[in-house]
């Protein structure tokens, strides 16, 4: 039955070469944990991506209940967490997943660093990876404000003050981040926009570049 | 029973079901979360004292306004509702003023052309005193009515009964 549906679609769209090209490639022995258990360190990049997928999905679902507004933001979070079925789980996935994503990304970076995988010809992919790192930090920073509780508010105040300490440009950056001269109504609106539109779009584009580069250049050789 | 399964098929099934299990574990909470409003039981079983002595409920429909506390997610408010309260063959009726045609508001004898009926100005829908739709006018169903109770000589209005 599934086979028949697949064949019907494939006959018309010719999708087999597409996924073959994505999925069918050699995994060298030195990155395969079945050969050397220590090769699990090569899994961190994939795990980061897996967590990012969870973040995108859980974020989409949270957006069904959340409103980015100073009056209702906290009330809507409280409602979706305590009164909607599985709310604590879905928000928990997003909350803890955010930290797990940063941890996995950091472990992936350490692996790349200590195996020297960033060297020529893969320097550009290191740079793309660093951009991904900063976008992920941006997602973490902007998402932190959205529940609009005390922790969110004061963390953002501190974050904005750090940004304001940049020489010359600081005050402009702070005003841009706040969307005004205080952390308030305009800040939560733009942090929401950054968190759900701008940063995810940038992240997906950069991840695409990251994956194309690794396929073009192949995984770096054994130590 | 001697149907052999190839190594490749076994691996495909095993990997497929593991991936399916993990995917379902991830998606189930999210989907359950999203469909929750459709699975929640409707609230309102409350009867509200509309401050109307039963002696004032007569054969002539009387428009009664009452406040219902509504909870819409994280937002609570008082909704003002109207019911046409009357005594029909000794039984107290509290009719909803929402026309069953397209949801306009009906009133008792608001059109002098049609005495002794509820009249809807939008498409000239009409209902008799007990809320039955007059055949030949747009509405296809009688007016909804609220549940009622009597306590201490006063009228209590409860949840809307949908027909």
Topology:
The complex is a heterodimer of chains A (223) and B (163).
Chain A: H1 2-13, H2 16-23, H3 44-62, H4 73-82, H5 87-114, H6 123-145, H7 150-164, H8 170-178, H9 185-217
Chain B: H1 7-39, E1 48-53, E2 62-72, E3 75-88, E4 91-95, E5 107-108, E6 118-120, E7 125-127, E8 145-151, E9 154-161
Antiparallel strand pairs in B: 1-9, 2-3, 3-4, 4-8, 5-6, 6-7, 8-9
Give descriptors for this structure.
heterodimer, A: 223 residues, mainly alpha, Cytochrome Bc1 Complex, Chain C, 70% helix, B: 163 residues, alpha+beta, Rieske Iron-sulfur Protein, 6-stranded antiparallel beta sheet, 3-stranded antiparallel beta sheet, 1 helix, 9 strands, 20% helix
Describe this protein's structure.
The complex is a heterodimer of chains A (223) and B (163). Chain A has 223 residues and is mainly alpha-helical. Chain A has a single domain (42-114, 122-217), classed as Cytochrome Bc1 Complex, Chain C, CATH 1.20.810.10. Helix content of chain A is 70%, strand content 0%. The longest helix of chain A has 33 residues, at 185-217. Chain A is globular, with a radius of gyration of 21 Å. Chain B is α+β, with helices and mostly antiparallel strands. Chain B has 2 domains: 1-40; 48-161, Rieske Iron-sulfur Protein. Chain B is 20% helix and 36% strand. Chain B is built from 1 helix and 9 strands, in the order H-E-E-E-E-E-E-E-E-E. Chain B has one helix at 7-39; strands at residues 48-53, 62-72, 75-88, 91-95, 107-108, 118-120, 125-127, 145-151, 154-161. In chain B, the strands form 2 sheets. A 6-stranded antiparallel sheet of chain B has the order 1-9-8-4-3-2, with no helix packed on it. In chain B, strands 5-6-7 form a 3-stranded antiparallel sheet, with no helix packed on it. The radius of gyration of chain B is 27 Å and the shape is elongated. The N and C termini of chain B lie far apart (57 Å). The interface between A and B is medium-sized, with 19 and 12 residues.
């Amino acid at each position: 039955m599934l086979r028949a549906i697949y064949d019907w679609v494939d006959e018309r769209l010719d999708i087999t070469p597409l996924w073959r090209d994505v999925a069918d490639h050699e995994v060298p022995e030195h990155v395969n944990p079945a050969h050397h258990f220590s090769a699990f360190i090569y899994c961190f990049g994939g795990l980061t991506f897996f967590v990012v997928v969870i973040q995108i999905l859980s974020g989409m679902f949270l957006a069904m209940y959340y409103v980015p507004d100073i009056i209702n933001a906290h009330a809507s979070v409280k409602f979706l967490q305590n009164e909607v079925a599985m709310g604590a789980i879905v928000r928990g996935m997003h909350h803890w997943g955010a930290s797990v994503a940063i941890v996995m990304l950091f472990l992936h970076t350490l692996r790349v660093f200590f195996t020297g995988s960033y060297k020529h010809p893969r320097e550009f992919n290191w740079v793309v990876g660093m951009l991904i790192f900063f976008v992920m930090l941006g997602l973490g920073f902007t998402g932190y404000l959205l529940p609009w509780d005390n922790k969110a508010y004061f963390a953002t105040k501190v974050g904005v003050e750090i940004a304001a300490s940049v020489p010359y440009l600081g005050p402009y950056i702070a005003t841009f981040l706040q969307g005004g001269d205080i952390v308030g109504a305009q800040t939560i609106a733009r942090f929401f926009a950054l968190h759900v539109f701008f940063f995810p779009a940038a992240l997906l584009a950069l991840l695409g570049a990251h994956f194309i580069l690794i396929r073009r250049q192949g995984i770096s050789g054994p130590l | 029973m001697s149907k052999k399964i190839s190594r490749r098929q076994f691996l495909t099934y095993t990997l497929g079901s593991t991936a399916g299990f993990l995917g379902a574990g991830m998606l189930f909470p999210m989907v359950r979360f999203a469909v929750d409003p459709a699975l929640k039981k409707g609230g309102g079983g409350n009867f509200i004292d509309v401050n109307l002595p039963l002696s004032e409920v007569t054969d002539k429909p009387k428009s009664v306004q009452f406040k219902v506390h509504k909870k819409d997610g994280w937002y609570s408010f008082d909704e003002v509702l109207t019911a046409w309260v009357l005594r029909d063959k000794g039984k107290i009726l509290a009719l909803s003023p929402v026309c069953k045609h397209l949801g306009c508001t009906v009133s008792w004898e608001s059109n002098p052309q049609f005495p002794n009926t509820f009249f809807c100005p939008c498409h000239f829908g009409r209902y008799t005193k007990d809320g039955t739709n007059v055949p030949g006018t747009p509405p296809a169903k009688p007016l909804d009515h609220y549940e009622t109770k009597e306590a201490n000589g006063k009228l209590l209005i409860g949840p809307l009964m949908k027909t």
